[in-house]
Amino acid sequence: MSEPAEAIAADVGSDPALERRVRDTRRAGGLGRFILRRSLTGLGTLLFVLAFNFVLFQLLPGDPAARYRGVRDISAEAIAKLREELNAPLWDQFINYIKDPLSLDALSTFSGESVWSTIFGSLWPTVVLLGTATLVATIVGVWIGIKAGWNRGSKFDKASTGVTLLLYATPEFWLGLLLIMLFSTGVGPFPALFPSGTIKDAGIDALSIEGVINIAYHTVLPATALALVYLADYSLIMRASIVDELGQDYLTTARAKGLMDYQIRRRHAVPNASLPTITLIFLSFGFIIGGAITVETVFSYPGLGLLSVEAIGTQDLPLLQALFLFTSAAVILFNIIADVTIALVDPRIRV
Amino acid sequence: MSVETAPMQVLSSRAIARQRRVRSTKRFVEAFAQHKSGVLGVVMLLVFVVLGLLAPVLFPAEMIEPINTVNNPRMASPSAEFWLGTDELGRSVLALLVWAIRPSLIVGISASIIAMILGTLLGISSGHFRNWFGALCERLTDWFLVIPFLPLVIVLAAVFGQQGDWILIVVLGITAWPGTARLVRAQTLSVEGRPYIERAKVLGNSDWKQMSRHVLPNVMPLVIANTTLTVAIVILSQTTLAFIGLTDPNSVNWGSMLDNASASGAPLRGAWWYLLPPGICVILVVLAFTLIGRALEVVLNPRLGSE
Asked: Is residue A202 scored above 80 in pLDDT?
């Protein structure tokens, strides 16, 4: 398989640019290789985050072991062991850290429990909230973007661009506070429709039908707050990509074939314009996590965001660092998924 | 013959350069004025700047010190005396609102300037140097680009503690640069392909001179447009950090106002006068910078063309 390419490479001889192109073509070989290469880059990023985390720990002022004072059931031996570890030379500490980079046995300085079990315990509410919000934001945002971009300059375009720019500038937690005031407390003509605080009423099994309905009921307001802010991002990008496609030759061809306007839009323009939007939805995951932190706080929604803010309040640094590591890893993973999805859809990217 | 060319020679090269600069500034202002939304952004921003500067005149600093407001009604709805009502300590919400303009603008702009300098340095270096140093700068940008912004800022702010606004500026500045760096790198690569850079190289200019005299002026317009958009994001982040209690508790800003409003139960009491205005101010300032940034992008980057 690689013989012809080799022959060409030999022919090309001293032209480095052409040589590189030949090499790239060969490298483009398979999707498997692309995924492997992309995963290795992701791993590199993760190593960087780990090193970064180590440096941060060194910057901490004061006696780190003393932070466990507040935990009642932590043994004196555990504190002594921690002290001993912390008094080791920097190099030994780094070796220790590399041996166990995820600090699998790290304890929260507030509750004394393992940070990782605390994190996994609070994971599912965040998944529910972010999943719902992203889904709604994607559907509505892409719909607005297509409609506005296709009829550029129309009344709908002007109105929706104005509204999306406003939403883009809105802090999501403030929107959450407003929603609580309007629909949870009930002001003036607004009835108190939805609950705020916690993810489900006490005593209901989350996995029963009643539990799912109850969770959905509690998720409406926080998900709306997040979705409203993020649909602004998505619709602005979708609009820009549709506008980019407007002048393309293939649309003129489609029109010349006598296709109806909506057919051209649905079958030709939208699939091509969706590509950058899909990437961006995956890439914006890091920002959505940021939004979840404040929205969960406002609604006392017991996910990772609320956990982070509580950890800030109690100065629980081991938990904060584990949370940082976890969210970074999640974002890196989503980046890889985005790249692989695009590579599947568009073979040009695989190079 | 020489008489005719004489008026030209009177102008020194410096004067010609100045003339050219005046002309291009004029052209820029005219082009910017074409963008109604951009002009609207400038007007909005000016209103905030003027109000921020006039804060001590409009509302003397004693007015927002809790010790002077014990006799005022608490959480009172708007009245003739307090146009936007009072907070849980009896302070005028309107006075707080105006005093909060300064920290928002100062932190937002200073942090963005740090991000601009870092982003430009790393971006140009990663595009200019074709050795290990350039590769390192590129990797560093890619790594920071992936790290989720708010969790990173939270960890940094938690580690450095609530030591006042300057630490906030540094933390926001060292987290907001990667976007700028990537943009600058792309632009540097396209500039470096042009013949005059090759000429500069052949003439023996140092790397520093090539970068500062030839690449930087070509990259700067994009950087300025990008920095204006960064200010918007930084102000939003600052508000978020203040809201979750990671900034100096003594500083009066819109995020901490919302934090106090939320903590004192304003949403449950229906205290809209306390809840609405800080959010609206954030939206207006962020919107102003976004509108200016978008207009600058179009004016300074002819490749964007119609859009």
From this structure: no
**Per the domain annotation, does B178 fall within a domain?**
yes
ipTM of this complex: 0.84
CA distance A73 to A67: 14
User: Any CB–CB contact under 8 A between A320 and chain B?
Assistant: yes
Which region among A224-233, A287-296, B110-119 has the lowest average model confidence (pLDDT)? Answer: A287-296
Output Rg (C-alpha) for chain B, integer angstroms. 24
- Cβ <8 Å between B155 and A320: yes
**Shortest Cα distance, chain A CAs vs residue B60, angstroms:** 28
Which CATH number fits the domain that encloses residue B47? Answer: 1.10.3720.10
Cβ neighbours around B105 below 10 Å, total: 18
Number of domain units in chain B: 1
The letter for the amino acid at A327 is T
Q: Pick the residue with more confidence: A168 or B266?
A: A168
Is residue A224 within 8 Å of residue A214, measured between CB atoms? Answer: no
Q: What is residue A139's predicted lDDT score, i.e. its pLDDT?
A: 93
Residue A325: name the closest of B177, B148, B157 by CA: B148
Q: Please state, for a pLDDT cut of 90, what percent of chain A lies above it.
A: 15
Q: How far is CA B59 from CA B72, B86, B92, B253, in A?
A: 15, 14, 9, 15
Neighbours of A82 (CB within 10 A): 17
Distance from CA of A208 to the nearest CA of B (A): 31
A243: chain B residues, CB-CB within 8 Å: 307
**Cα distance between residue A340 and residue B203, in whole Å:** 45
Question: Considering only CA atoms, which of B89, B128, B110, B155 is closest in space to residue B216?
Answer: B128
What are the backbone angles phi and psi of residue B86, rounded to the nearest 5°? -130, 165
**Is B201 part of a structural domain of the chain?**
yes
Bigger pLDDT: B175 vs A4: B175
Place of tokens 């918007």: B232
| H or E element that contains A322 | helix A317-345
Residue contact B243–A294, C-beta within 8 A:
yes
Which tokens is A122 given?
């609070």
3-state secondary structure of A151: coil
User: A200, A299 in Cβ contact below 8 A?
Assistant: no
Backbone angles phi, psi at A28, to 5 degrees: -65, -10
Distance from the Cα of B289 to chain A's closest Cα (Å) equals 10
How far apart are alpha carbons A109 and A316 in whole angstroms? 5
- pLDDT tens, A80-112? 776 776 676 777 777 777 666 666 666 776 676
Decide if B2 is inside a domain: no
Distances (CA, A) of B202 to A17, B196, B207, B217: 21, 10, 12, 20
Residue B8 falls inside a structural domain: no
For B192, the domain range is 33-65+77-306
* Interface residue A312 vs chain B (CB under 8 A): yes
* Distance (Å, whole) CA A349 – CA A34: 10
DSSP class of residue B92 equals: B
